[in-house]
Specification:
With 67 residues, this protein is mainly beta. It contains no helices and four strands. The N and C termini lie far apart (32 Å). The mean pLDDT is 87.
């Protein structure tokens, strides 16, 4: 849920055109059909182009994955 005053991540996706273009030869090729992405309210993808912004932080696992 998006709430005013709180940080959130949002991706605008067109389900009719979304497709992965990455290959072994070009592993960093951007997907199509994803036009805008905001991380913590900061645009990182705008109009299908990377903005260069790198907000947010890495999610870290705590504890053991094994029972």
């Amino acid at each position: 849920m998006l709430t005013p005053g709180r940080r959130g991540d949002v991706a605008l996706v067109d389900p009719d055109t979304v497709a992965d273009r990455a290959t072994y030869a070009q592993p960093t090729a951007l997907a199509i059909g994803i036009d805008d992405v905001e991380v913590a309210g900061v645009p990182v993808l705008a109009g299908g182009e990377l903005t260069g912004a790198t907000p947010g932080s890495a999610a870290r696992r705590t504890g053991s994955a094994r029972p």
